[in-house]
C-alpha cells in the first residue's frame, strides 16, 4: 500500500512564540514531524503551506476572522526551520486565491493529482492546525478515496472554541479516518 506523509502548514506564522497566528504548542511537534518524515514506510513526503495573497479574505482587514498570516514570500509563510526539509519531497501551496479559504491542501487539485500519479492509496496527516487545515485536508483526502490516518502526536489545535480540536478528530473518525 503506497503511503504518503502530509505535513500540513508547519510554518513560521503558525508557531510560537512569534507567529502571527500561533497555534498553542505548534512548535512542539517538530521532532515528531521529522521522525515521521524519516520513516521508510512513506513513499512520498509532502509539506503544504498556506500561501496567501496580501488581500486574502480570511484576514481581519478583509472582514475575515484571522490576523494577516502566511502572506506569500514573507518569512512568516516559510516552513518552520526546525522541519528537516531535506526529507520533504514536494511542497504544495494552498490559499493562493484571495477569494477562497484555502483550508485544504487539496484545494487546487495539485495534491490529489500528485498522490494519484505516485500511486498513493493512503495518507498520514500531521501538522497545524487540527481543527482547521488538518481537518479540511484529511476530510478531502477521504472524499477523494484515500485511506487516512491522523497522527495526533504530530498535530496541535487552535481551539478557538474550547474542544474544537477534539471535535475535529471525532468528525474524522466518523468519516472513516484512523486517529492515533
Could you characterize what this model shows?
Strands 3-2-1-4-5-6 form a 6-stranded parallel sheet. It is globular. Strand 4 (122-128), helix 3 (130-143) and strand 5 form a beta-alpha-beta unit. The protein is 23% helix and 21% strand. The model has no long low-confidence stretch (mean pLDDT 96). It has 180 residues and is an alpha/beta fold. It contains 4 helices and 6 strands. Helix 3 (130-143) packs parallel to helix 4 (164-175). The relative contact order is 0.20.
Could you say which overall geometry the principal axes of the C-alpha atoms support? Answer: globular
First CA to last CA: what distance?
Answer: 19 Å
What order do the SSEs take from the amino end to the carboxyl end, as H and E? EHEEHEHEHE
Proportion of helical residues: 10-25%
The major pleated sheet works out as: 6 strands, parallel
What gyration radius follows from the Cα positions, in whole Å? 15 Å
Structural class: alpha/beta
Which structural traits does this protein have?
6 strands; globular; alpha/beta; six-stranded parallel sheet; 180 residues; 4 helices
Briefly, what is this?
With 180 residues, the chain is of the alpha/beta class.
SSE layout and pairings?
Blueprint: E1 3-8, H1 30-37, E2 44-50, E3 90-94, H2 110-117, E4 122-128, H3 130-143, E5 147-156, H4 164-175, E6 178-179
Parallel strand pairs: 1-2, 1-4, 2-3, 4-5, 5-6
Amino acid at each position: 500500500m503506497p503511503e504518503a506523509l502530509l505535513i500540513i502548514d508547519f510554518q513560521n506564522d503558525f508557531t510560537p512564540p512569534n507567529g502571527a497566528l500561533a497555534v498553542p504548542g505548534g512548535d512542539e511537534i517538530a521532532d515528531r514531524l521529522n521522525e515521521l518524515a524519516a520513516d521508510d514506510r512513506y513513499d512520498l513526503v509532502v509539506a503544504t503551506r498556506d500561501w496567501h495573497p496580501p488581500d486574502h479574505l480570511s484576514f481581519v482587514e478583509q472582514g475575515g476572522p484571522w490576523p494577516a498570516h502566511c502572506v506569500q514570500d514573507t518569512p512568516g509563510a516559510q516552513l518552520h526551520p526546525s522541519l528537516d526539509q531535506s526529507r520533504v519531497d514536494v511542497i504544495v501551496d494552498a490559499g493562493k486565491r484571495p477569494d477562497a479559504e484555502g483550508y485544504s491542501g487539496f484545494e487546487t487539485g495539485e495534491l490529489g493529482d500528485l498522490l494519484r500519479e505516485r500511486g498513493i492509496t493512503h495518507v498520514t496527516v500531521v501538522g497545524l492546525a487540527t481543527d482547521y487545515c488538518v481537518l479540511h485536508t484529511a476530510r478531502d483526502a477521504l472524499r477523494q478515496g484515500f485511506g487516512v490516518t491522523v497522527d495526533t502526536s504530530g498535530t496541535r489545535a487552535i481551539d478557538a472554541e474550547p474542544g474544537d480540536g477534539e471535535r475535529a478528530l471525532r468528525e474524522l473518525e466518523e468519516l472513516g479516518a484512523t486517529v492515533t
